Amino acid sequence: MKTLVKAGPAIYGAVALVVGIALGVVFSPQVPDAVQPYLPIAVVAALDAVFGGLRAYLDEIFDSKVFVVSFAFNVLVAALIVWLGDQLGVGTQLSTAIVVVLGIRIFGNAAALRRRLFGA
């Protein structure tokens, strides 16, 4: 029973994820054309924050305030860089650079999670 109490807040996150996916499938939201170039970069930036949060949680140094600020800041900075690249005519190159940098961070966090969870 004690593990259920500790997992309480995690259950809220899991339920919110399932509800969000279900709502997305049911309503099939359309992304406006003006925002489409920024969506993949925002998703990668958000995944970076999520994997960093999971790593911090397993290392027992997770702070929800840091996670929320990191999540929002990563997405905003990545979108700003892509927007700036579009204004300069090099949006594709900057988008690629963002994906590479954040991809390296995501895989670094994934490797740390793998080592922590599986000892490999």
Which features characterize this protein?
120 residues; mainly alpha; 2 domains; 5 helices; 82% helix; globular
Walk me through this protein's architecture.
This protein has about 120 residues and is mainly alpha-helical. The chain folds into two domains: about 1-30; about 30-120. About 80% of the residues lie in helices and about 0% in strands. It has five helices and no strands. The protein has helices at about 1-5, 10-25, 40-60, 65-90, 90-120. Helix 3 runs antiparallel to helix 4 and helix 3 (about 40-60) runs parallel beside helix 5. Residues about 1-5 have low confidence and may be disordered.
Q: Give the averaged pLDDT, no decimals.
A: 87
* Major sheet attributes: none
**Number of separate structural domains:** 2
> Uncertain regions: pLDDT < 50 for 5+ in a row?
1-5
Task: Note the run of SSEs as H and E.
Answer: HHHHH
Question: Which descriptor suits the 3D outline?
Answer: globular
Q: What is the rounded distance between the termini?
A: 30 Å
Radius of gyration: 17 Å
DSSP helical segment count: 5
Q: List how many beta strands DSSP finds.
A: 0
Structural class: mainly alpha
The percentage helix is over 70%
Q: Per DSSP, what share of the residues sits in E-state strands of 2 or more residues?
A: under 5%
